[in-house]
Amino acid sequence: MDVGTARVGVARSDPDGMLATPIATFPRVSAVGQVADAAVEENAGVIIVGLPRSLNGSLGKAAAAVREFCEELADELRELAYECPIRLVDERLTTVSAHQALHAAGRKERRHRSVVDQVAAVMILQTALDTERATGRVCGDTFVPSATTGE
């Protein structure tokens, strides 16, 4: 997933974890429920969420907003009685790269908004899949909801 302030782009992989494909872009205000429903419908084994970092690797306001989204998503999944780990992966410059890819594909700039979040979600997921395949290790950090840590 690519979580933005206005929209959330969602992608999925094939059952073998080889190829990421776009699913949808949801308005941020309703995305938690829609993402949780999609996770259940797709029988997701893990949810990968892009964690925006600054170029020096630090976390800022955007990362805090993503963590807040993950808290809400974990709560929604718990309410649905669906167990699915959420992992946060570095997604520096993904949206910029998505815009560049759409431009290179000949898509008009004004039409990027409707799909750029899906393209960014595909890039985040594909990078995670490729990294896991190449290293044999799980990509990203498991998100631990504050409700389970006693905070």
Describe this structure in words.
By secondary structure, the protein is of the alpha+beta class. Helices cover 45% and strands 19% of the residues. It has one domain: YqgF/RNase H-like domain (Nucleotidyltransferase, domain 5, 2-Layer Sandwich), CATH 3.30.420. The chain is built from five helices and six strands, in the order E-E-E-H-E-H-E-H-H-E-H. It has a three-stranded antiparallel beta sheet with strand order 1-2-3. It has a three-stranded mixed beta sheet with strand order 4-5-6, sandwiched between helices. Helix 1 (28-41) packs across helix 2 (61-79) and helix 3 (94-104) crosses helix 4.
Sum this structure up briefly.
The chain contains five helices and six strands; from the N terminus they run βββαβαβααβα. The protein has helices at residues 28-41, 61-79, 94-104, 116-135, 146-149, and strands at 2-3, 7-13, 20-27, 47-51, 86-90, 141-142.
Features:
Nucleotidyltransferase, domain 5; 3-stranded mixed β-sheet; 151 residues; 19% strand; 5 helices; alpha+beta
Coarse morphology:
globular
Count of separate DSSP helical elements? 5
Supply the helix-strand structural class. Answer: alpha+beta
The total tally of domains equals: 1
Give the full name of the CATH homologous superfamily.
YqgF/RNase H-like domain
Instruction: Report the mean per-residue pLDDT as an integer.
Output: 85
Helical amount: 40-55%
Q: Cα distance, first to last residue? A: 25 Å
> Major beta sheet, specifics?
3 strands, antiparallel
CATH fold group: Nucleotidyltransferase, domain 5
